[in-house]
3-deoxy-7-phosphoheptulonate synthase
Amino acid sequence: MLIQLKQDIQLDQKAAIVAKASELKYKTTEVVTQAGHYLVGTGKAEFDVRAIGNLPGIKDIHIVSDEYRLVSRKWKVNPTVIDFGDGLQVKEGELTLMAGPCSIENEAQIEKTIQHLVANNVRFMRGGVFKPRSSPYSFRGLGLEGLKMFYDMCRAHGIKIVTEVMQVSQIAPMEPYTDVFQVGARNTQNFNLLDELGKVDKPVLLKRGISGTIDELLYSAEYIFSGGNEKLMLCERGIRTYETASRNTLDLNAIPILKEKTHLSVIVDPSHGIGIREYVEPMALAAIMAGADGIIYETHEKPEEAASDGAQTLSFSESERMIWKMRKVFALKKELA
Amino acid sequence: MLIQLKQDIQLDQKAAIVAKASELKYKTTEVVTQAGHYLVGTGKAEFDVRAIGNLPGIKDIHIVSDEYRLVSRKWKVNPTVIDFGDGLQVKEGELTLMAGPCSIENEAQIEKTIQHLVANNVRFMRGGVFKPRSSPYSFRGLGLEGLKMFYDMCRAHGIKIVTEVMQVSQIAPMEPYTDVFQVGARNTQNFNLLDELGKVDKPVLLKRGISGTIDELLYSAEYIFSGGNEKLMLCERGIRTYETASRNTLDLNAIPILKEKTHLSVIVDPSHGIGIREYVEPMALAAIMAGADGIIYETHEKPEEAASDGAQTLSFSESERMIWKMRKVFALKKELA
Amino acid sequence: MLIQLKQDIQLDQKAAIVAKASELKYKTTEVVTQAGHYLVGTGKAEFDVRAIGNLPGIKDIHIVSDEYRLVSRKWKVNPTVIDFGDGLQVKEGELTLMAGPCSIENEAQIEKTIQHLVANNVRFMRGGVFKPRSSPYSFRGLGLEGLKMFYDMCRAHGIKIVTEVMQVSQIAPMEPYTDVFQVGARNTQNFNLLDELGKVDKPVLLKRGISGTIDELLYSAEYIFSGGNEKLMLCERGIRTYETASRNTLDLNAIPILKEKTHLSVIVDPSHGIGIREYVEPMALAAIMAGADGIIYETHEKPEEAASDGAQTLSFSESERMIWKMRKVFALKKELA
Amino acid sequence: MLIQLKQDIQLDQKAAIVAKASELKYKTTEVVTQAGHYLVGTGKAEFDVRAIGNLPGIKDIHIVSDEYRLVSRKWKVNPTVIDFGDGLQVKEGELTLMAGPCSIENEAQIEKTIQHLVANNVRFMRGGVFKPRSSPYSFRGLGLEGLKMFYDMCRAHGIKIVTEVMQVSQIAPMEPYTDVFQVGARNTQNFNLLDELGKVDKPVLLKRGISGTIDELLYSAEYIFSGGNEKLMLCERGIRTYETASRNTLDLNAIPILKEKTHLSVIVDPSHGIGIREYVEPMALAAIMAGADGIIYETHEKPEEAASDGAQTLSFSESERMIWKMRKVFALKKELA
């Protein structure tokens, strides 16, 4: 059960609701987000909504049988809208584009990328300053100093930044210089990180785990939401299978399934999803046709010189052509809806 | 190495070519198809094409390093065209649609489906008369008598049929009543069946194995082609992964990869690929955007009463709407190319 | 429901049982094997055994809820014993060893292998004469002539042979020269082949599919059993996963699970299971500890010169050492039971 | 390249070695652990060991081509020994047993478990106080207070504890009350956590990722080792595959492969590996036969009342029987070596 509380609920009213739920064999967890106030009830017994729904202080009550409740579309039919100001929103019905290099390297690289994005009216730049690397001897990113430079330069051009956070202790120092916290595929079930991101008033882009199920992705989103942060986007980025012809297996099945299960936006990463430059475009277009709300991909002035992921990174001219095509495809998708 | 021979080559000329190849450490296999005459050379040494290429009787010679040679796009840049007469061709640049029930059930069902297809200008009807079933106690199809009825009724309306062949002994009796032999996912590596289909002058639709790699699919196609039959189409139908939210994981990555590796057409089966009726449409549209040359899917007048696969089968009205959308998407895809 | 019929049942008695089952909403399939006579009832309703169990002609009746019925341990608690004469039996409680090359190559190779087996008291020799190969240009085996030589030489030394059958048309010519028909991992769901093997009075070793589930393996066994052949052994040979450090992932979990679900013997193939010579021995010993009833593995006088699978094939000295260890481990396993 | 330095090396000597390595196109990373002092050289060029090996200050130099270097058996042939005092060591050649509940619940539960372990001479007790849970609404463990109670009670009986650490900020408060830090399957690639555990002077049990490769496990171990902590054990606990008959697929192939690649001990967790109580014992015995150095498993006085993982938890009597059998099997394994 999911109970939305009125903002002006009295303490004794809340206690009465909790007591009633307990009587119905439901344990309640109180959730206060930036946008709402909820009691999440977990239990298995069937109950009559009327037995509790008319208690004072309740705004609305929903029977939600999924194990994930707050991110479920069963109670919140309207899709989540994340507002970035300046008329920029991530939401169903708009095509969100996020592009940039795998790693932030230096000022010139950021400058060139911003020019490319501005010229093509792309409003989000992706780029990592803390890089998760399999080997401890690989380049691990420019760190916080790189982030500040990245943020300041983008801010000057109205570009929002998306960058990966890897651990709890990075959240506070990163927060002033970050527009969207990205949680990478290796951290999808780093529950402490999810808990802490629940306390932050900044949007989070949560990637599916390397071999994570769709349900696990939704559970992980529930961590952040129930921690207090409703500004969530999900990201399909390919799963690990036996096939070695592509880096990962981009699971586009996940898009229509997620779109039905949750009110959160679904962004697709075709760069990691297939991992081969010349195939990024068809997979991006396919993802939009499958219902994706946005595409995040890697582009670099000189992909062959990129510090990481060059083999799956588009040149600016490839990126420009793909942006034009993605918008055409999205327009048709809306027309067909 | 792949040597295309002239149709009027003399025996002694051929012997000279084989001897020269042997000298270069290449073992040759002679392949005669309905359309061409080849020597496929297998070996590892590098060689100078000029050392053999000017021998009499040779039409063309190609260095092809893939283990699959005849189906490789490296020697045959022009995509394969399969001609069914009456202006009907399966080829790159045309959207091929194949629709119908999982199983052929009775005359009324065929009749209704034909009406639906004719009304929507779909030229291929799919339907199984020999059904591979996990359990020996399940319905195994109407068999040869069903096939004859199916074929005759379709023929009367200019519809071509696509139906699964499961074993060598079925090929001869099925051949007069079959337009396209479908090889199912459980038979992709049934090498004797592939060998025998190489001897048939009828097109073959070869499905990817349940956990088959892209390379294994191409090898299996090589069996049929080297057996003598060039009229081949490949079919992506979803692979087996750990994810249980969908029946299979439709691997759309395979489309651009296959389109680069082979000159054969690539058809996608979203019905088996995701296995859930309401998501078949977005996956079909996505597949077209990823570059598929055609879509094969399940439709039935009353899906909930279908003898098999009802949960992934579209009603005729759903099918009609999807056909209209697929053509819109394909038109845009061509425009963007 | 599974009804064992008396051997001397009258036709009218059988009809009465079928009618009664039908009344209980069960469809029956009659199964006559070399060893028994059954009615397999498929249906979902609960029923009272007494309602049907006391009809004349019934030997015994079992409620078996698995989808596979005849191979289930729920009705046949005693494990299957396959008798090869000369005191040779495959059964729970005995360690069955099957060894030999991947492919039969020539007389000298067979001779050497037989000597090795006889010296170590191994009673089954494996060896392929029909080889399933991914590429059509690879060595496909010596065929029927090779089989005859193989069989005759082994027979002269009291060795039984295990060899792969790939298609229906091979069964009849192979039968006089084969002691155990092996069904390979690519043919586990070749249902026509399974049907035909049900009609043969020779034991069958059925391998698990390349990405086959345990349940699918049992279903496939049900095909053979319900076709009339009870002389069945199952074989775990590794499944396909994302891990590339080994050729396959030998799934030893399958052993205790299969041993509980079915009365059939479970043989393990560590050669294909891990695919790396030096690790075959620990996996064989582990399999025995997990409860395997036998081990089938590859050995060759000169593994590095073997026509196929050399990298996973043991030399005779390695084989000898492993045989000694396997018997030690099996003895301890029995002692601990 | 891996260079072991003398403990009394001079700064100018070290500088000379780094300069020489750089000349050979190798970048060096200095690693100081509790036990040694190393320069890890990463580069691709071949080099002559003599060109650098005789510089002053070098104890030994090894060519190690694996991407993981410090954990590789190619330079350190002798297996790692972790000494816990009181004659207790984890090492190759000894069977290490770690047993206990999934979650620490209360004092009585700890007391009962300790009695069981002491009676059976098991020296390590496992038990979680911080629990990673898919759903935010599940029981997340007793936390630090629970840990203190757990530690103190075990210490009084000479039992060492193994408990999971989930995030960097837990390390310092946990350290005084922890004998072995366990890194769970969801944190195998939580690189910041690995970095920090490199700075701790306490043994670490590193679990393989849910769909982690063997190489990724070794890379993650390299993080901890290169961070300064050599006291490492690896743990195989089952991987995610398409098979649903077991909770995970315990990959015993990994044991002989890991034992050849690394000098670290390999512990196996059959409880999570198969996830079904009655099959834990055969998998534990199989793991020992495959070469495992130890077994970690779940046991509880009343498994059916356990706070988590009850379905895969042994009762004390089952545990006792299994301990006895594991020691028998390990004795035979040593005899056969």
